[in-house]
Design brief:
Layout: H1 10-26, H2 43-47, H3 52-55, H4 64-82, H5 102-125, H6 131-160
Helix pairs in contact: 1-5, 1-6, 4-5, 4-6
């Protein structure tokens, strides 16, 4: 039996993929170095103690809450793609929320957590990692990381104001 050295073991790939997704949303595990984020940094930690008023402040034509909603929308659509859905997406809908009140902010944060949990489950359920599926999964992480960076920079600007 020959071994194809150009293939990645599915379990190893999934383990690394889940590690990066978890680090993006939850941060690196306690006492371990992260793959790319500093200790204590994550999507959730960046938004959890922010007020609706703070996240609704417009900076350069957008707001933190707009980035949060867009990241959630993207995550939801990519999970659908991985699960085989293929309807056309109106990406402009992902930028409609620009401000929120306290209740809406609470609901959105809960929705992001649910979308993240759905992504974890989606990855775990993939039986065969095809080229498109791999690309979509990696895109979720990269896209969320980009918006995490934008959110963190906007929050720094808000704190300085």
């Amino acid at each position: 039996m020959s071994i194809d050295r150009n293939r990645i073991n599915k379990d190893d790939f999934l383990k690394d993929l889940l590690y990066l997704l978890r680090e993006t949303f939850e941060g690196s595990p306690e006492g371990e170095g992260g793959a790319y984020l500093d200790d204590g940094i994550s999507f959730f930690s960046s938004i959890e103690n922010r007020t609706a008023e703070e996240v609704s402040i417009e900076i350069n034509g957008t707001s933190v809450v707009a980035h949060v909603e867009h990241a959630k929308f993207y995550l939801d659509r990519l999970v659908e793609f991985i699960q085989g859905e293929s309807q056309k997406v109106n990406w402009e809908l992902s930028w409609l929320i620009e401000s929120v009140d306290d209740k809406e902010w609470e609901i959105l944060r809960g929705g992001v957590r649910k979308s993240y949990e759905n992504a974890l489950q989606c990855f775990a359920n993939v039986e065969i990692w095809k080229e498109d599926t791999i690309g979509e999964a990696i895109s979720m992480i990269v896209h969320t990381a980009y918006h995490l960076g934008a959110i963190r920079q906007m929050l720094k600007a808000i704190e300085r104001a």
